[in-house]
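User: I've been going back and forth on whether these two constructs are worth ordering. Before I decide, could you fold them both?

Assistant: Sure. I'll take them in the order you sent them. The first construct and its structure tokens:
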Amino acid sequence: MSVLVPPSLSDALAALADNPDALVLAGGTDAMVEVNSGHRKPSHVIAINRVSELRSWTYDPVAATVHIGSSVTYAELMESPVAELLPALAEASRTVGSPQIRHAGTLGGNLGTCSPAGDGLPVVSALDGVVHLASAAGERSLSVHEFMIGVKRTARQPGELITGVTLPVLTGWQGYSKVGVRNAMVIALASTCLATDLEGRNVRLALGSVGPTILRCTEAEAFAATAVSFETRSVSVADARRFGEL
């Protein structure tokens, strides 16, 4: 097995062009479990944790978006100003494994693995995130819903690398929660992210671990959009009663 540790994005893309089916290793918190158990035996590994272009995040106040490089760790998301801009993502980050795993695991790795139990994915789904891909041939961007196509299956093509994800900064409340067999260090049996967009006058709801990919609750979102008064941030008694009957 060969292991390459490129220092730059151009080097990483060149390595992927030469080895398009190589295992791309970020934090390794999922991939190494499969390798160590013998379920996965890669011939080539490209470790991207030292690619400087993937290790940062940026906030665009004009577009009201945050771009997160694919090698930014969950610990960094918790401890940086991203936690205030994207509070649901910070909450999800806090539930990821142990401190050691949070200092190694990345949101890009969550996207690459594409397990429906991935803690960051309901947040990316609820916020309608955009996933950015690059290869030696060029770049492209997909909505996260186009990117996730099945259980641990994505639209990433051989030779492509996930370079990051862009998420909008919403004005309303947002949060994340999950349940498992323990209170900590647990894979989600079910997870959810709820995000309100006061300017867009909509509510987003995404569920993890209950389907082949992250599920958006479009009927519930449509109900909330008509029932919630975004001016008063309240619902009528009739709509509350109707909600209780659902």
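The second construct, handled the same way:
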Amino acid sequence: MFLKRIFQQTLNVQERIALPKAELVASIEKNRRSLELIDNWIDDVAFLQSVFNYGVPDFIKSELNKPIDNQPTYSDYIVAIANKHFDSVSYFEIGVSVGKNFFQMINGINNASFTGLDIEEINPIIEKKLQLKDIVEWDRMEGSIKKNKSSLRKYVSNGKEVKYLSADVWDQNSWSKLSGNKFNIIFSDALHTPEAILFEFEMLVKFNLLSEKFIIIWDDLVGSMKDSFYKIIKRYDKAFKVKDVYLLNVNGWVGQHEQAHTIGILSNFEV
């Protein structure tokens, strides 16, 4: 415990990202326009057939469709960072849920491809906005609570490639389907357990999925989740040359309708 505290104290953990105001405002405006394209994120039939109700708690379900104000959300920060720091983006989201953040990324990030991973099937609400090009299926992991076969769907949206991997996050075989990708922006918002985020990072390393320049964002980083965040930095700092570490208190997918919460960010470049 003492050594862990010493390690955490030596980290330069920042609590504010110095993004130019104009760039953040542009991202906010772009994301709010994206959200206006969908008035209802809930597909009742899909929810009945789901594993975890698409990760939507009952207390959030009533807030999901409400308009959000112009206070920055994590979605706004991700879009601003993407468009500022990358000429080309390969975006990976772990835990897509109904796709509210994923949809904003697709519409908000220029010159990009997108991959989402979730145990649920893709939300029909956002699938209607995409053009399906291909689908491959395989048996789900033995013992998984997933109801259907695992699958990888490929779409196009305004010339951008979009992939959706419907699989159990613990299924290494499904992770292997992503081999050959090099992601430079990763957003983790799946199981919200310390074991899960460690496993996710191990899969990124095992299947060589990290680009030479990358940034990773974790949602809801509190308690033991934060301990796993520090473990990742300590374990992989030398290999990946971690440059910036942030713990930010920001609004999430329902904006001001939910209390702001902590996200963790690490990158191997200066944000």
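Notes on the second construct follow. The mean pLDDT is 94. The chain has one domain: 2-267.
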